[in-house]
Specification:
The protein is an alpha+beta fold. It is 41% helix and 14% strand.
Length: 162
C-alpha cells in the first residue's frame, strides 16, 4: 500500500493523533471529499495493523479485540469531530466532550455518549461501564496522567456575514 497521508508516523499513538487532524481537514462535513476520506481511513486501518505500540497484543484474539476497540473509538470520534463549540479529549480509551454541548445533547446521546454529572462532561467508551468499578472516583487530572491524554481541536466553521 502506498502511504500518502501518514508519512513519517512511527507508532500507533502518533497515527491516531494524525488521523483526527486529517479528519478535521478532509471530512465531508467540513467540505472535504468523500473519496479522500476513504483513502485516509484505508491507510489508517493498514497502518494500525503494521505500526508498533506499547504492550502489543500477543495472540490473534487479542489483536482482533484491540483492532475492534480501536475501530469503535475511531468511529465515535468521526461522528463528533465536526460539532461546533465543543472540546474533545481522549483519555485512554475514553472520549470526553465539554464546552458548548447543550445544543448537541440530543446528537451526543443518540451516538451513545453519556452525561457525567460529577465531571460536567459527555463521555464515550466502547467498554461496558458501571459494573466493575470499586473505590473512590479519581480526579480527572489523575486519569490524564495515568492513561495519557490528547486534546482534539475541532474545526472552527466560518460565520456567514451579511
Amino acid at each position: 500500500m502506498t502511504i500518502k497521508f501518514f508519512k513519517g508516523i512511527a507508532n500507533q499513538a502518533a497515527l491516531r493523533k494524525a488521523f483526527v487532524q486529517l479528519l478535521k481537514k478532509y471530512h465531508p462535513d467540513n467540505g472535504g471529499d468523500p473519496e479522500t476520506c476513504k483513502q485516509i481511513n484505508a491507510e489508517y486501518e493498514y497502518l494500525m495493523q503494521h505500526l508498533p505500540k506499547t504492550g502489543e497484543a500477543k495472540t490473534e484474539a487479542d489483536k482482533k479485540a484491540a483492532a475492534d476497540l480501536d475501530k469503535e473509538i475511531r468511529q465515535a470520534l468521526e461522528k463528533v469531530v465536526t460539532l461546533d463549540g465543543v472540546n474533545i479529549e481522549v483519555v485512554g480509551t475514553w472520549i470526553w466532550i465539554d464546552g458548548s454541548t447543550y445544543q448537541h445533547r440530543a446528537t451526543l446521546a443518540g451516538l451513545g455518549y453519556k452525561w457525567s454529572k460529577s465531571r460536567k462532561k459527555w463521555h464515550f467508551t466502547p467498554y461496558e461501564t458501571g459494573k466493575y468499578y470499586k473505590g473512590k472516583k479519581k480526579p480527572f487530572e489523575t486519569l490524564r496522567v495515568m492513561y495519557g491524554s490528547s486534546e482534539i481541536e475541532t474545526e472552527k466553521k466560518p460565520l456567514l456575514s451579511a
